Every structure is written in C-alpha cells, then in structure tokens.
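User: Can you predict the 3D structure for this chain?
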Amino acid sequence: MFFRVLTVFAGLSHLFYGITALFDPFFIQEYARYGFSKQRILIGFVQAVLGLLLLSSFYFPKLRFFGALGLSIMMAGAFGTRLYIGDSAIQSTPSIVYFVINLIILVNNVNSRK
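Assistant: Here is the predicted structure, written as structure tokens:
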C-alpha cells in the first residue's frame, strides 16, 4: 500500500510539474534562471511523460521501472543544477526529496521482480 501511494504521489506530482513548466510564467522564469530556457519545453514534456509512466504502471507494471529510473535521473540532475547555480538548501530540497522518492520506487520495483 505504501509503495502504491508513493507511486501515485510521484506520478501526479511530476505530471503536474511537467505541464506547469510548459505554461506558468513563474516556471518559465525559473528555467531561465537555471540556464535551461531553450530546453524547458523538452524537460517539462519528458517529466510529464515519465509521471504518466508511473501512473500507467498500475496497468502496465514494466513501465514503473522506466518512469522511476528516468525521474530519478532527472531529479539528480535538478539537484546538481540547484547546487551549480548556488541555490539555498531550502530551494534545493524538493529535487533531492523527489530523487529519494523515485529511487525508493525504483529499488522496490527491482526488488519485487526477484
């Protein structure tokens, strides 16, 4: 039950954030601050798709691995970006928390296949 809730939470969060990154003026400015203005649409789209993979994994379990792996990599990159641009620990917290959440989902998925 815990992993199902975690998967739904992560899937919905990344789907929402990915879509929001496409249209919200705040996030458009944030991506410029990160130095990723030109990549914002691609990053937002990929994040939304990976969130959908997590949500779809209840019907297609093999998708959970790819969604969690992709989002773990993205969140590690987001954390690295936050460190590189000199963001505070508070500003960097969401990326590391979501990295850990996606890593937990990934490890649980791999262990449940054994």
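The mean pLDDT is 95. The chain has one domain: 2-112.
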